[in-house]
């Protein structure tokens, strides 16, 4: 585990990472699109970065939100095709605006000026080279906040290796450990294999979650798991693997916010098992599993609170609070 790299190394890293776009392999699909020549990858990403929104987000985990919010940038496009994606308007419909690396650096600086505690990059996998380039520019212009890499967890080593010493906090999903479930709900049978390698690489880079004197996340790995109705994600198996891989001290965010969205809302007859929200008793069983396994550092989400922050990327406000 190494520390942060200096600005000249970030610049060199950006140039080297850009070459990956000649035959893109940033995610587990490794589709090989020549994005430098204008081809678009399976994820919908081309050469120029596409962003749907940037804002102070108060719906993330407490050590990311603090008192002033997490400075969140939502990127368009995603390597996965989750049938229940809450962010499908940007992840799969590709809603967003094309911007330059310099403009992306400007968004980072704007969020810092607004008082954000960190820069939180949501769905960054297809854009790793452009993010490093933008970060180099932002740092040269005074950016000093921790960088959070908020990902679905289908990242290849080609994406993660250039981020060593660049990313401070990794915030990946661990969706499933079963290939058939991953294929049926996210269109990626190899998600479990790719995800396990990615999580271990992230941990090797930054170690367990660490906090600054104010209790804010400063560095480390925090893993998210979304509990699905009827234990369809096999949360018991997920948490057992998590403990075996990283020990009982691993930091976990156990998420209760599932509700039918995207295809599970539009095609309930095709996905009847996912056509209803998670029940409190189902989430309680997931929490009991974490306790029984001896996991020591688990963020628990109140099921009712999940309704407070439901994204609407067709609205300028994105998160219209309902409480």
Itemize the secondary structure elements and their pairings.
Blueprint: H1 7-18, E1 50-57, H2 62-65, E2 70-75, H3 88-91, E3 97-98, H4 101-113, E4 119-122, H5 128-140, E5 147-151, H6 157-160, E6 169-172, H7 179-186, H8 191-206, E7 210-211, E8 217-226, H9 235-246, E9 251-255, H10 263-266, H11 280-293, E10 297-300, E11 311-312, E12 318-319
Parallel strand pairs: 2-4, 4-5, 5-6, 6-8, 8-9, 9-10
Antiparallel strand pairs: 1-2, 1-3, 7-8, 11-12
Walkthrough of the structure:
Helix 6 links the parallel strand 5 and strand 6. The longest helix is centred in the middle third of the chain and has 16 residues. The chain has 11 helices and 12 strands. It is an alpha/beta fold and 323 residues long. Strands 1, 2, 3, 4, 5, 6, 7, 8, 9 and 10 form a 10-stranded mixed sheet that branches. It has a two-stranded antiparallel ribbon with strand order 11-12. The chain is globular. The chain has one domain: Aldolase class I (TIM Barrel, Alpha-Beta Barrel).
